[in-house]
Amino acid sequence: MGICLSARIKAEIPSHTGLDSKHVSSDGNDVSIDLSKRPSVPPTPRSEGEILQFANLKSFSFFDLKTATRNFRPESVIGEGGFGTVYMGWIDEHTYAAAKPGTGVVVAVKRLKAESCQGHREWLAEVKYLGQLYHPNLVRLVGYCLEDEHRLLVYEFMPRGSLENHLFRRGLYFQPLSWHLRMKVSFGAAKGLAFLHETKVIFRDFKTSNLLLDSVRIVLED
User: Fold this and answer.
1) 197-206: per-residue pLDDT in tens?
2) Are strands 201-203 and 3-5 parallel, antiparallel or unpaired?
3) Higher model confidence: residue 217 or residue 206?
4) Is 110 annotated as a binding residue?
5) Annotated catalytic residue: which of 20, 205, 214, 222?
6) Helix or strand or coil: residue 191?
7) According to the model, what pLDDT value does residue 55 have?
8) What's the burial of 177, exposed, middle or buried (CB within 10 Å: 0-12/13-18/19+)?
9) Which residues pair with 162 in a beta bridge?
10) Helices and strands (H and E) in the chain: how many
11) Is residue 214 annotated as part of the catalytic site, yes or no?
């Protein structure tokens, strides 16, 4: 993961747990966040219980995520990397239980490789911190799964994919980005980075494949 977390990190904790994040106004502008009221985040957690205590996240079972992604079948893969594989999944908007494909809410399920160089303690810390960071230009971590040797993260799904796809992939229906969208991407990425720097977080892997788009936002993810 490309986010470097400081022990002195502070973050704004959202007051809700639903998937319907009301963080973009009707005119498409970002909702302001009062950084002066951020609570201090406690030391690195040592167990799942400490994640639940400090992070505003849903704890998923491995069975639920296996069902949501249709048994992690290849057709559900939307991304791969050294960390593992990302799958498209469906969950119920209210209960977060696995839903049938085409129903409920679409999420991105990142399944970490068992041989990943990231240690268990580092993974716990990352989940806790990302669960408390909230900004319109950061991809939202919905929940996680920590069961036996399985470690998975569940993120909001960004339907327009990465900026990399829009810039470098050519095809029959390729269209260059408009200048309006280019400016929107630039400002959105800058706002996300500024927020991370305010909270003592360094985003170490800033690149087009880690900039995701939906209909109104550009968000950072890794």
Assistant:
1) 998 888 878 8
2) antiparallel
3) 206
4) yes
5) 205
6) helix
7) 60
8) middle
9) 212
10) 5, 10
11) no
